TrEMBL record:
PROSITE patterns in alphabetical order: ABC_TRANSPORTER_2
Protein's GO biological process: D-alanine transmembrane transport; L-alanine transport; L-isoleucine import across plasma membrane; L-valine import across plasma membrane
Species: Kitasatospora camelliae
Protein name listed in UniProt: ABC transporter ATP-binding protein
One Gene Ontology term of the molecular function aspect: L-valine transmembrane transporter activity
SMART domains found in the cross-reference section: AAA (SM00382)
Low complexity composition-biased segments: 277-287
Cellular component GO terms held in the UniProt record: plasma membrane
Length: 287
């Protein structure tokens, strides 16, 4: 993978926020991600769906520097990203995880402050000496963190321990912490897993509000209702390959998607999928 970090010339508003090109991730003999191209534009919410083991989380890990792709490049706003998680965060990409990763014994506010760390200029010496610069930066970080908790509906829980929050609020806290790094792109890995229907609707509203702040979003989710309510565009991964990408109708009506999820296309069962037009669209696999 290329690791150049020099800013790209000619950055325009049409430059995608995220541009993954030819991303391949092999684990020994297994190709978990196979030549995937994906872009996310400014102001877009893009969905990434696929059956279990399709390679969705592995692809996220390639985008965020947790894995170094075997082949391919990942650009953020026209600049190739270095494959190191902290540098990817600094560049402007934040993420949440499928399995919640909070600091369970820290307060809600402290969890968000940790997320703010990549944006504070004060270094280790300033922190040890606790000079005026440190106190100013700390006050600013706390103010920003409280704003984010307010935005995510958690301000009244700021002093609670993270581990004492109900599950749905822990997921919201992960999002607040990710937002603390001031991202231009937020990657959400199964944000509604384990949520009840009311929490899922609240999560949907939160994602729209994040997009309205000008943050682009790429979201993995198994809940199709959530994905199709939310996303401008959805890509489908099957066995590491992107088989189709498009709007709700394009994806829902694609025979290969139905086959991938159900094992075989159904006809006349009364399900929306079964009764849908099964015209095909161009795919990565076709290219
Ligand atoms: N570190 C690893 N080493 C070896 N194989 C891996 C590794 N990470 C993932 N895999 C394999 O890569 C494939 C894709 O896994 P991945 O977790 O990305 O799928 P997924 O689409 O996110 O699945 P799910 O929806 O169940 O979370 C699986 O076969 C998995 O076992």
């Amino acid at each position: 993978m290329t690791t150049t970090t020099a800013p790209a010339a000619g950055l325009t508003t049409a430059t995608p926020v995220l541009e993954a090109s030819g991303v391949i991730m092999r684990f020994g003999g297994l190709t978990a991600v196979n030549n995937v191209n994906l872009t996310v534009g400014q102001g877009e919410i893009v969905g990434l769906i696929g059956p279990n083991g399709a390679g969705k989380t592995t692809f996220f890990n390639c985008l965020t520097g947790l894995y170094v792709p075997t082949e391919g490049t990942v650009k953020y706003k026209g600049t190739v990203l270095p494959p190191k998680p902290h540098l990817v965060t600094q560049a402007g990409i934040a993420r949440t995880f499928q399995n919640i990763r909070l600091f369970a014994n820290m307060t809600v506010l402290e969890n968000v402050l940790v997320g703010r760390f990549s944006r504070t200029k004060e270094g280790i010496f300033s922190a040890i000496l606790r000079g005026p610069g440190f106190h100013r930066a700390e006050a600013e970080s706390r103010e920003k963190a409280m704003e984010l908790l307010e935005f995510c509906g958690l301000a009244n829980k700021a002093e609670h321990l993270a581990r004492n929050l109900p599950y749905g609020e822990q997921r919201k806290l992960e999002i607040a912490r990710a937002l603390a790094s001031d991202p231009g792109l937020l990657l959400l890995d199964e944000p509604t897993a384990g949520m009840n229907p009311q929490e899922t609707v609240a999560a949907e509203e939160l994602v729209f509000a994040i997009r309205d702040k000008g943050i682009a979003i790429l979201v993995i989710e198994h809940d199709m209702k959530f994905i199709f309510n939310l996303c401008d565009r959805t890509a489908v991964l099957v066995q590491g390959q992107k088989i189709v990408e498009g709007d709700k109708e394009t994806v829902q009506n694609d025979e290969r998607v139905i086959t991938a999820y159900l094992g075989a296309p159904l006809e006349g069962t009364g399900t929306p999928e079964a009764d849908a037009d099964t015209s095909t669209t161009s795919t990565e696999a076709d290219k």
